[in-house]
Give the backbone structure.
Amino acid sequence: KQEVTQIPAALSVPEGENLVLNCSFTDSAIYNLQWFRQDPGKGLTSLLLIQSSQREQTSGRLNASLDKSSGRSTLYIAASQPGDSATYLCAGQGGTSYGKLTFGQGTILTVHP
Amino acid sequence: ETGVTQSPTHLIKTRGQQVTLRCSSQSGHNTVSWYQQALGQGPQFIFQYYREEENGRGNFPPRFSGLQFPNYSSELNVNALELDDSALYLCASSFDGSYEQYFGPGTRLTVT
């Protein structure tokens, strides 16, 4: 059974700082790893999807990496801004016949001016 | 904007009642999944439908059921509501053969 853990549970940083969010998973047979952003009371916005054959993905100030052998993924946010404040969720997807996502509990990020 | 819509936005029900939540996906999204997100938790997989058939189920009792229609809309039905069913319900859809899932804004269900 896949279990996903995110560290830290909460993070508060000043504007402009570079930061790293961590995600670990127990089943290395993971197929894809997806990072999402969730604003309070809202749905999920997909940030980055790392497929099995890839090791990292980049979009603007965001970079996500995947190391299946160690069971880890990291989301790097460069030059953080107050608008980055949200909950960040990682989710693993196994190589099964359907695309069930197993989520971590999220990291609540606050970027203060 | 993911192109996935859900209705209603908020809903208040009484314990023991039944509820139907709706989701509308983009054209061509043959797969829809439903998730339950309790406050402060990550979403939990309820079930998935592919081409109108249930295609996988999480650890949820049979009183959680679903339907998927040919017009890329779907429903989540919950019978005999319990207080613990209070949560944000999210649907997610994807293209045939794609693993990337696109989420709707969710329906906030409160059971009193």
Notes: Chain A touches chain B at residues 4, 31-32, 34, 36, 41-46, 49, 51, 89, 91, 93, 96-106 (CB under 8 Å). The longest strand of chain A covers residues 30-38. Chain A has a mean pLDDT of 92.
